[in-house]
Every structure is written in structure tokens, then in C-alpha cells.
């Protein structure tokens, strides 16, 4: 797939981007290179290759899940206008 100069201008107009003729031609070259690369990648036979979530199969380093703050719920809710069962009560805004 490749774009024409008119298609690049139309895309720019739809995106509300003002580009000069030189910029449109430069963009055309770049976009066509991108589409060419995509076509090459799609031509590669990937049957039998299991999809991966990441390019490298490395374990994620995790930190210990340790509580480092005290529970201040009662102190925060002491200044709330209304609470019930540990929840803040707010006015209904959607009917």
C-alpha cells in the first residue's frame, strides 16, 4: 500500500494540520516507507510462533508488599460532613 500526495493533503486537512507542499512531499515519503516496512513485516511467516506480551521474556522485579503508612481513615472522616459504615456520603448528582 502506498499513498498519493493528494491523500496526504486530505489527511492533513482532516486533521486540521496546515502543511506546505514540501512538507506534504516529505511526509509522503516517510509514510510510504512506514507502509513498506509494515508490508515486509506482514509477509513474514509467524505460524507456530507464540505471541508474547513483551519483546524480552524477563521476569518483572517486584518489591515486597509492605504497609508503610498508618490507617488514618477515622481522622480523615472526622471532618467529613456525612459518613456511614466507613463511606463518605455525597449528594446525588445523577438521577
Please give a quick description of this structure:
This protein has a domain at 5-43: Orthogonal Bundle (Histone, subunit A), CATH 1.10.20.
Task: Describe the fold and architecture.
40% of the residues lie in helices and 4% in strands. The chain is mainly alpha-helical and 95 residues long. The chain has a domain at 5-43: Orthogonal Bundle (Histone, subunit A), CATH 1.10.20. Strands 1-2 form a two-stranded antiparallel ribbon. The longest helix has 23 residues, at 21-43. The chain is elongated. The mean pLDDT is 91.
Topology diagram in text:
Layout: H1 5-14, H2 21-43, H3 73-77, E1 83-84, E2 87-88
Antiparallel strand pairs: 1-2
The total count of strands amounts to: 2
Name the CATH class of one domain: Mainly Alpha
Quote the CATH topology of one domain: Histone, subunit A
Radius of gyration, rounded?
Answer: 28 Å
Order of helices and strands: HHHEE
Seen as an oligomer or otherwise, the chain set is single chain
List key phrases describing it.
single chain; 95 residues; mainly alpha; Histone, subunit A; two-stranded antiparallel sheet; 3 helices
Amino acid at each position: 500500500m502506498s499513498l498519493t500526495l493528494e491523500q496526504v493533503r486530505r489527511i492533513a486537512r482532516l486533521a486540521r494540520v496546515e502543511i506546505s507542499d514540501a512538507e506534504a512531499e516529505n511526509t509522503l515519503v516517510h509514510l510510504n516507507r512506514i507502509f513498506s516496512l509494515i508490508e515486509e513485516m506482514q509477509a513474514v511467516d509467524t505460524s507456530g510462533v507464540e505471541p508474547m506480551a513483551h519483546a524480552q521474556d524477563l521476569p518483572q522485579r517486584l518489591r515486597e508488599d509492605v504497609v508503610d503508612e498508618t490507617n488514618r481513615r477515622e481522622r480523615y472522616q472526622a471532618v467529613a460532613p456525612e459518613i456511614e459504615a466507613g463511606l463518605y456520603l455525597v449528594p446525588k448528582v445523577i438521577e
